[in-house]
Amino acid sequence: MKIAFDVDVLAKQMSINDMVHKVADWGYKYIEQSPHPQINPFYKHPLFSRETEAEYRKALKETGLEISSFIVVYRWSGPTEEQRLHAVANWKKIVEIAVNMGVQVINTELSGDPNQPEICNGMWFRSMDELLPLFEKEGIRVEIQSHPYDFCELNDETCDMVKSYRSDNLTYCYSASHGFFYDKGKGDVRHMLKYAGDDLSHILLADTMNQTVDCRYIVNPPGVSMAIHQHTAMGEGEVDFPGIFETLREMNFKDRTFKVGGDSITCVSYFGYPERMDRQAPEALERIKRELGVK
């Protein structure tokens, strides 16, 4: 199992070189490269100039770190065909970048419109039918996670979509901070992880409050809080982390390997407080190692 740190919380604060060195200072061996304005920006075409690539490669060489995975967010579920076509083009470019950088795993979202679920569902399958041969040709493992305010927020339904392809190149990513959306506020992490079963290849760890409980989030004007959640440190919210770690141990998640992309990935996905990361990032790493028996 690879233990990675999602560098979103750092990307807005520092250069790529400093970002990589900071993750190394915290004791991590892997970076999960979430959307970055110079590399894989949200919704837009990937960039990654020669200068950016050189800076990144130099920092990786200096620290001995590796990129475990890219995170990309493209509107491959539409709802318009123009959006879908742009997203497919973006996908083709990020696959090219990943192959060039020796990265075999891309973690992504459905990225549709919750107000048009039928259209977006069809658009996603159309995009997947077009892109899966490319993923298979290039040896890329694409991991799907549903997300708050997507056309599908539910764990089980998203797992069923992934499983329907029966492909070694398509697996499931579970995000702990989205879990209360995944089952409409129940927070039954044991069921959700077990439902993903053998297709579970990636875990994102961060805490949040249960948005379905009255007054957890007070937002004005009322009615705009449907997708509100957090990515805070484990223990600062209401996610059942003892249940998550117990289930991962039962599933022997740390020893999983996949035909495409190799090892399973556990990623620390803290976003909220950059000023706390010097303490919280190493603490998260140590807890994961302790809970899952990683040396």
The CATH superfamily title: Divalent-metal-dependent TIM barrel enzymes
Question: What fraction of the residues are assigned to beta strands by DSSP?
Answer: 15-25%
Q: How many separate helices?
A: 10
CATH architecture designation: Alpha-Beta Barrel
Radius of gyration: 18 Å
Question: Describe it for me?
Answer:
The chain is of the alpha/beta class. The chain is built from 10 helices and 10 strands. The chain has helices at 8-11, 16-25, 50-63, 81-100, 117-138, 155-163, 179-182, 189-196, 241-250, 277-292, and strands at 2-6, 30-33, 66-72, 105-109, 141-145, 170-175, 200-205, 257-258, 262-263, 265-268. It has an 8-stranded parallel barrel, surrounded by 6 helices. α2 (16-25) packs parallel to α3 (50-63) and α4 runs parallel beside α5. It is globular. 44% of the residues are buried.
Summarize this entry quickly:
The protein is of the alpha/beta class and about 300 residues long. It is built from 10 helices and 10 strands.
Features:
295 residues, alpha/beta, TIM Barrel, eight-stranded parallel barrel, 10 helices, 10 strands, 16% strand
SSE map:
Elements lengths: L1 E5 L1 H4 L4 H10 L4 E4 L16 H14 L2 E7 L8 H20 L4 E5 L7 H22 L2 E5 L9 H9 L6 E6 L3 H4 L6 H8 L3 E6 L35 H10 L6 E2 L3 E2 L1 E4 L8 H16 L3
Parallel strand pairs: 1-2, 1-10, 2-3, 3-4, 4-5, 5-6, 6-7, 7-10
Antiparallel strand pairs: 8-9
Helix pairs in contact: 2-3, 4-5, 8-9
